[in-house]
Design a protein that fits this description.
single chain; alpha+beta; two-stranded antiparallel sheet; 10 helices; 41% helix; 25% strand; globular
């Protein structure tokens, strides 16, 4: 197991993704390097009011601690009393054009250690798509690249991680999916050096396939014309994104409870959001089609 190799990959992944996004948007992402008083730090790359992205953040973090927060030990009580180290890349991109979907990707590595005990480690991550107006070719493309990313790692892997994503990115209080899903996994561990190589390889593949999964969709719709109606619906649906991240997301909860940097943790939130009381889409509209045709889990590939 080589955590230094993982860290080098993650920092390189951040830089590669930002370089592509800067070329697409035309604006330079701000670089904000920060230190965490309790140990570790990170680099946040962010753009606001870009030529294309209304807000976009790509963050790298590597943080350490002497004891885990409650959100972690409640799920893994055997980790209580262990020192820990967590590193990862997390991104959320909010285009201004409502016909271009929001996207999220995260890949991460975690180690918990205790003197005289075998280290406990695992990888986690995934990527998912949140459209405001549904286009079947976009969703099929995104899921197809997700499947391609996992193909070398077991015949059943994509199906399991696709189903996991559908369950995870679900607003239980709304009985509603956040978007059209993608892939999600956590607690990925296998014994021995070969097991580490396999798990790290899978995580690298997820990270490396994000741009091929997402960028062609943006290129297809970046010049689509839109008006106030589409922007209004986009802001309404972005409210669901905020609700999920603040109520259900494990990463947000872990970051806040472990004393993480709030500005970097909450960079995922969109800049323009609306809530309405008991709003319903107009029957037969494109807005209704999102609910009826896209926000229900299905096999896209």
């Amino acid at each position: 197991m080589n955590s230094g190799e993982v860290k080098d990959y993650l920092k390189g992944l951040q830089e590669r993704i930002v370089a592509v996004l800067e070329g697409f948007d035309g604006q330079t992402f701000r670089r904000d390097e920060w230190a965490r008083p309790a140990g570790g730090g990170g680099i946040t790359r962010i753009t606001e009011e870009g030529d294309f992205f209304e807000r976009g953040g790509v963050g790298f973090s590597h943080v350490v601690g002497d004891s885990l927060p409650l959100s972690a030990t409640a799920q893994r009580p055997e980790l209580a009393g262990r020192a820990w180290e967590a590193m990862g890349v997390s991104l959320v991109l909010h285009p201004r054009n409502p016909y271009c979907p929001t996207a999220h990707m995260n890949v991460r590595f975690f180690i918990a250690t205790k003197e005289g005990a075998t280290p406990v480690w695992w990888f986690g991550g995934g990527t998912d798509l949140t459209p405001y107006y549904g286009f079947e070719e976009d969703v099929r493309h995104f899921h197809g690249i997700c499947k391609e990313a996992l193909a070398p790692f077991g015949e059943d892997t994509h199906r399991r991680y696709k189903d996991w994503c559908d369950r995870y990115f679900f607003l239980k209080h709304r009985n509603e999916a956040r978007g059209v899903g993608g892939i999600f996994y956590d607690d990925l561990n296998a014994p021995g050096e070969a097991g580490f190589k396999h798990c790290f390889g899978l995580t690298r593949s997820v990270g490396d396939h994000f741009i091929p999964a997402y960028l062609p969709i943006l290129e297809r719709h970046r010049d689509d014309a839109y008006g106030e109606r589409e922007r209004d619906f986009q802001a309404y649906r972005r409210g669901r994104y905020v609700e999920f991240n603040l109520v259900w997301d494990r990463g947000t909860l872990f970051g806040l409870q472990s004393g993480g940097r709030t500005e970097s943790i909450l960079m995922s939130l969109p800049p323009v959001v609306k809530w309405r009381y008991d709003w319903q889409p107009e029957p037969g509209s494109a807005e209704e089609k999102l609910y009826t045709d896209f926000l229900k889990p299905r096999d896209w590939v």
